């Protein structure tokens, strides 16, 4: 008798615990789904390095550009569709065509792959590209075009954007976001 009562007692406790756990799990999951649907209509991404985001395709990937106005150093970080995780490229350079209206200048800039011992990134297997140009010193805004970039097997060419705005707004206005 004592064994049967103990079994029933443990069975009841286990059933209550399972019910409680599964209810809590569902309640936690619902707000995340609701939140996701609310943001699907138009969502923005935050640039992880505080730079300018340029989107490729329908949220396929991004590149974030960070400019040091003092030195004219421009760094590009290739990111996934949510602009959260780095995406390594096999190409060694990323070419930009830049137009600055304030000084009436047009020039090309080759950003080279950055080697990073800590992450294991090498030239030809990196998510970070950088270059320095005197033409970018003191620049607060400019128009740029990414000539060609291959990301996760897809090639994107002639991608226009304004710095520091990026292209996410114009991309979404054309129904491409």
What does this structure look like?
By secondary structure, this protein is α+β, with helices and mostly antiparallel strands. It folds into two domains: 1-41; 52-173, Sandwich (Immunoglobulin-like), CATH 2.60.40. 25% of the residues lie in helices and 36% in strands. The protein has two helices and eight strands. The chain has helices spanning 2-40, 168-173, and strands at 52-56, 61-68, 73-80, 93-100, 105-113, 128-132, 142-151, 154-163. Residues 23-41 and 172-177 have low confidence and may be disordered.
Based on the model shown, name its key terms.
177 residues, alpha+beta, Immunoglobulin-like, 2 domains, 8-stranded antiparallel β-sheet, 2 helices, 25% helix, disordered C terminus
Q: What does the average pLDDT come to?
A: 83
Instruction: Enumerate the strands of the largest sheet in spatial order, edge to edge or round the barrel.
Output: 1-2-3-6-5-4-7-8
Give unreliable regions as ranges.
23-41, 172-177
Please give the CATH class of the largest domain. Mainly Beta
Helix content: 25-40%
Number of helices: 2
Summarize the structure.
This protein has helices at residues 2-40, 168-173, and strands at 52-56, 61-68, 73-80, 93-100, 105-113, 128-132, 142-151, 154-163.
